[in-house]
Amino acid sequence: MISMEWDGLTDRERFGTWYREGRDRFSDRARDADWEGVFEELGEHPGWVNLPRPGNRSGFAPLHQAAWHGADFAVVSRLIAHGAWRTQRARDGRRAVDVAREQGRTHLLELLEPVEVRRLPAPAEMLEHHFHRLLRERTGGAFEEIEHLLPPLAPLTEGPAVEIRFPVVGMMGGFTYRLELDYLHVHGHSRMDADDGDHYRVTPEGWSRMERPRVPPPPPRAPKPPAP
Question: For the chain, which terminus, N or C, has the lower number of CB atoms within 10 Å?
């Protein structure tokens, strides 16, 4: 299972200073076509490969930047091998292949064209409608108080086993989702949960909660006796 992250938070001041500075450094390296620096950062933080600059102003992830700069074929191949999503859209709706086409980077067009490895169990618009409705209903007013860009489902089609985490400010946790054979599995979780959280099934007809056996948290470890 390949685990990735969707960053939908648009208020960069909500990030901690240390984390925000690290993400800014990563975005600066992609913006400046410092690909060795980008891959050095990904060695430490592999889940960052699809993250734009904190605040998501343009939504350009490293693959968009590589398309803009016309990076070498080997660089773009390496980003994709790290899990970069060819279906990912910037805030203006462009994918990396669209950016490459506009910039005349013809050597990248075939490589950047999205490849569907798995199919969604329904048209993306229909499944996303129910998925996003689930997210809104289960977070209460979290999205009204703090703007979040809700995640698309297309990246799930780019690999045989892709799992995506969507942190939500106000939940002290978020959602993790993946494709099963004929439905979307969504796991809502919070650090405040006394157990595994809640699991949901999203289908073309809607969403429903999945009844699962509750697993109690492990008992605290007994303190070690003092050394003699």
Answer: C
For 130-188, the pLDDT digits (tens) are 999 999 999 988 888 899 999 999 999 999 999 999 999 888 899 999 999 999 999 99
CB 136 within 8 Å of CB 128: no
Residue 100 φ then ψ, to 5° = -60, -40
**What single-letter amino acid sits at 70?**
G
Task: Measure the CA–CA gap between 31 and 158, rounded to whole angstroms.
Answer: 24
Query: Which of helix, strand or coil describes residue 34?
Result: coil
- The answer, yes or no, to whether residue 125 has pLDDT greater than 60, is yes
Q: Give the pair of three-digit tokens for residue 189.
A: 């979780």
In this predicted structure, what is the pLDDT of residue 4?
93
Whole-angstrom distance, CA of residue 44 vs CA of residue 147: 28
Total residue count of the chain as it appears in this document: 228
Show the DSSP H helices in 70-196 as ranges.
73-81, 96-102, 109-112, 124-138, 142-145
Compute the distance between CA of residue 62 and CA of residue 93 in angstroms, rounded to an integer: 16
Average pLDDT over residues 121-132: 94
